[in-house]
Amino acid sequence: MAAELVVETQGLGRTFGSLVAVRDVSLSVRRGEIFGILGPNGAGKSTTIRMLCGLLTPSSGRGAVAGFDIATEPERIKTRIGYMTQRFSLYEDLTVRENLLFYAGLYGLSGARRRERVAEVIARNGLVDRSDQLAGTLSGGWKQRVALACAMLHEPPLVFLDEPTAGVDPVSRRAFWEEIHRIASDGTTVIVTTHYMDEAERCHRLAFIFRGAVLDVGTPAEIMDRRGLRVAEVECRERAVLDSLRADARVEEVAPFGSRLRVTTRREHDPAALVRAAMDAAGLRGDDPLEVRANLEDAFVSMVRDDARRA
């Protein structure tokens, strides 16, 4: 494995009886990179992460994490990673400090080093004023901050974050992502799963997984460019226009957003012209459709629907 690579897999697969949960997943993740894994529920994200964490043996392919083989050295991998689950997994009847001391012991820290490291983490994560507060009484955003602090106690080179901001308010989500970027800038690699497309755009690179397979890997800009999508929006509530556009083979997707329609096509078609034609056919006057930037959600929906059509 190349020195700068923290994760490398080739043809990774996992089956459960006749069910193929993951098939032919090949990934490379570099040191200090924030790598996002996106996909709907049941796409294979969790199974892939469990294999990378050394919790599940692959059925096929091979991989290495932090320099250790995921099939033959899973216990050594576990000492070199941090893991934060979607569900708050700390002890709610212990204080923030007591949780940190407990997890520091689990990670093998002891004596003066254990106390020093807990004090460092409390200060670095802005937990001084809450260090003696019961974890169960914290808000969602603070709970996630404490959970991340626990995952970083032993200073792992790689940390896995599974839907880390689910149920967290927008302000806390933004603060959490600032912390993720600070961790990465210090050289820690972060692998994160998320359903929030605005969060996905904060990652350095992404892998889109659907039905157990990787559909695309790259930076957000690369992925959107490869899809070659164009998008137009217009103020319109007329059902006839929506139905007309959905029946047009040149249109990838039509989605209502409040009083607006968002229409997606491939690069060779002009979405604004198609919308205007549909409005004219319905005898509607109004503002001209405006072409806007395609986003990751547009690209993801397009990929999933293409794959479903092929299947």
Low-pLDDT stretches are: none
Beta-strand content estimate: 25-35%
On the 0-100 scale, what is the average pLDDT? 92
Secondary-structure content class: alpha/beta
The CATH architecture name of the domain at 229-293 reads 2-Layer Sandwich
Largest sheet: 6 strands, mixed
Question: Can you give the helix content as a percent range?
Answer: 25-40%
Number of helices: 11
Alpha-carbon distance between the termini? Answer: 34 Å
CATH topology of the domain at 229-293: Alpha-Beta Plaits
Rg over alpha carbons: 23 Å
The CATH superfamily of the domain at 229-293 turns out to be YebC, transcriptional regulation domain
Helix/strand order, N-terminal first: EEEHEEHEHHHEHEHEEHEHEEHEH
Q: Which CATH class of the domain at 229-293 is shown?
A: Alpha Beta
In one word, what is the shape?
Answer: globular
Topology:
Layout: E1 5-16, E2 19-30, E3 34-38, H1 45-52, E4 60-65, E5 68-69, H2 74-78, E6 81-84, H3 96-106, H4 111-124, H5 140-151, E7 158-162, H6 170-185, E8 189-193, H7 197-200, E9 205-210, E10 213-218, H8 220-227, E11 229-235, H9 239-246, E12 251-257, E13 260-266, H10 271-281, E14 290-292, H11 296-310
Parallel strand pairs: 3-8, 3-9, 6-7, 7-8
Antiparallel strand pairs: 1-2, 1-4, 4-5, 9-10, 11-13, 11-14, 12-13
Helix pairs in contact: 3-4, 3-5, 8-11, 9-10
